[in-house]
Each structure stands twice: as C-alpha cells, then as structure tokens.
UniProtKB/TrEMBL annotation:
Domain of life: Bacteria
UniProt xrefs under Pfam families: FecR (PF04773)
Chain segments annotated as coiled-coil in the UniProt record: 264-291
Provenance organism: Leptospira semungkisensis
Transmembrane segments: 63-83
Lineage start: Bacteria, Pseudomonadati, Spirochaetota, Spirochaetia, Leptospirales
Protein name per its UniProtKB record: Iron dicitrate transport regulator FecR
Record domain FecR protein: where: 127-225
Keyword tags: Coiled coil, Membrane, Transmembrane, Transmembrane helix
Keyword Oxidoreductase among UniProt keywords: no
The UniProt record lists the keyword DNA damage: no
Length: 346
C-alpha cells in the first residue's frame, strides 16, 4: 500500500508551498478511523483575506493545519470547527404525572392513535389532548393545580417536572384553556405558550385562547407575566381583570374587564376528588411491551377489570388505597374508583 494517497498528496503540496509546515508527515493507514487530538493554546481569529484560520505562532499554525489535512484525508469529507464555551448541564428534574378529574363528551389523548379519555386516566409529559365540539376535560396535577381544556382545543403537556419545586409547561396549539394554579414553593414555575404569546404565573387563575389569527390571556385572580412573541415583545404584567390580545398587527391590553367565572369553582371541586398522595404513587410506574413482562415487573398476575361504564382493562393492580385502584396496563396507567368497578376476573 502507498504511504500517501492522492487526496493527502494535494494537501501536502499546499502546505509545502505556503511554508505552513517544514515537512508534512506521510500518510499512515493506521490513522483511518481514529480521532486526531488537537492542542490549541494560541488565540484564533478569522482572516478576511485568505479565509484561513490564523494562529499567532507559525509553528503552532503548521501543526494545526497539518492535523486538519490529516483529518480531511482520513475521513474523505470536508469539515469545519466550532469553538464555544461549555454549557452548564440542565437540571431536568423528576417526571410528574397528571390525571383526568373530569371529562365530558369528545376528549382524546393522541399517541399512536386517538384514545377517548376517562375519569382517572393518568397522563404524562408529552401527551397531546384534543377535544371536539361539546367536549371538555379537567386535568389535575400533583402540585394541586388543575387545567380545564374547553371544546375544540388542542393542548400538549410539554413539561411536567419536579426539581426543588414543580416546573409545568403547557403548549396550547389551538382553542381555549382555563388554569387554576395553586400558590406553591418560591421556585415553582407554570408556563403556557401559544404560537404568539408566553404566559408565566405563580399562584393565580387565568385563561388562554389561541386561534390562527390571535392569542389572548385573561387574568381572573393574581397576576400573570405575558410576553408576546410577535410585534411589540415587551413583557407585561397583567392584574386581575386585565385582558391582552395579540395579533399579527398589534398588541392590545384591556383593563378592568369583568367576566363571569363559574368554571373555576367547578374545577376546584373536581380537583378535590383527586388525592395528591394517590397521584404521586403513579410517578414511578413502569411500562411493559407484553403482559408477561408486566407480570414480571410487578410480580403480580394479569387481571381482567370490567368497569360499570362497559370498559374493560387488562393489567395489574399495583396498589389499592383510599378507595382507589392503581392499575398499570400495556396502554397506560389508571386511577380507578372502587365503586366504578363492576368486577375483577383473575
């Protein structure tokens, strides 16, 4: 085998003509598949004249260019280099769960296929919920907050995390949601974003609407920080009764707007039916691809659960507390009222 191939020969000739290196090393086939190591201590700048990276030391420049030529010859493709500061690691936190505490009409979870949601269904980060005409659903969170998704809406549970406090991020694709956010720890965060606004709160009640033409945020209680993503991107703090409307043409804030808000009392009542301790037990539930794997994970037998509403579930009853059954199936997790179960076949 020749010690120098045609691609490397070209780079070697260039280096010799520019005196970048006193002698370019011969190509060694053992370099193929190995990553070169660079030690660069000089300041790097881009020369507008010759478009070649310059080093303050000619000797160091030669070694750097020679190594770059070796890399190009070894992998046979072009490459570029980016120098940047190392970013601090992101603290992702523990995954939280949510649960359906009220549902009416057409309300589905979109995963592999649309699935009708029922009371007690457990939801996770990344789940997409869609409601149809006349549909509505309340989703309770472990931080004692609750979301009501109104009809003809689409919401993504973008982030459900727990660090030293809850970190909730929702993405409203279309439609309308109501948010009842309980006052939590100092570092808790609750965000709702739409294509044109981001709302950030801590302990408040507010609603968000979005459509192809506009987005709006209305504050029922507390205060909300709203940042438009188009036009005037100035952050605004809305107080009780304030409404902000963001369109392609303008950002408008209307003050002292009074609206009837009976939904929030209903949402509180529905949330009270969800025991926080019971919901927290679902956080560490494990999924499986087969029933045999599910039995092995929990060391329990598969049970056939027949509900009074006609539904049938196959899975393991992970735990039973406070009148609730925690059930894990191949399709997901469920919190079932004991009174809603017709019978269990073993």
């Amino acid at each position: 085998m020749e010690r120098m191939n045609s691609e490397f020969q070209t780079f070697a000739e260039i280096l010799k003509r520019t005196n970048a290196a006193s002698k370019a090393p011969d190509f060694d086939p053992s370099w193929i598949g190995k990553s070169p190591r660079f030690y660069v201590e000089a300041n790097i700048m881009q020369s507008p004249k010759d478009n070649v990276v310059q080093l303050t030391s000619n000797k160091k420049k030669g070694w750097f260019l020679a190594a770059a030529a070796i890399l190009l010859a070894g992998i046979g493709v072009g490459a570029f280099f980016t120098f940047s500061k190392k970013e601090a690691p992101v603290a992702e936190g523990v995954l939280l769960k949510a649960a359906v505490v009220f549902v009416k009409g057409d309300a589905k979870s979109i995963k592999e296929a649309p699935t009708q949601l029922h009371l007690g269904d457990v939801l996770s980060e990344g789940d997409r919920i869609v409601t149809g005409k006349g549909g509505s659903i309340d989703i309770g969170l472990t931080d004692s907050s609750v979301i009501r998704i109104k009809e003809n809406s689409e919401l993504v549970l973008k982030g459900l995390r727990q660090t030293d406090a809850s970190q909730i991020r929702l993405s409203l694709v279309s439609g309308r949601i109501l948010n009842l956010v309980e006052k939590e720890k100092k570092n808790a965060n609750y965000f709702v974003d739409t294509p044109t606004v981001v709302a950030a709160v801590r302990g408040t009640s507010f609603e968000v609407n979005t459509s192809p033409n506009e987005s709006s945020v209305y504050v029922v209680d507390g205060s909300v920080e709203v940042t438009p993503l188009i036009n005037d991107k100035t952050q605004r703090v809305l107080k009780v009764g304030n409404l902000i409307i963001v369109t392609d043409e303008k950002v408008e804030v209307i003050e002292a707007l009074k609206k009837a808000t009976p939904d929030y009392e209903e949402m509180r009542i529905n949330l009270n039916g969800l025991d926080k301790e019971v919901l927290e037990t679902t956080q560490n539930l494990k999924t499986a691809k087969t029933e045999q794997e599910l039995e092995e994970l929990y060391d329990k037998s598969i049970e056939h659960i027949i509900m009074k509403d006609g539904r049938e579930l196959r899975g393991v009853v992970v735990s039973q507390k406070k009148g609730k059954l925690i059930v894990q199936t191949l399709k997901g997790s469920y919190i079932l009222d004991e009174t809603s179960v017709e019978k269990i076949l073993y």
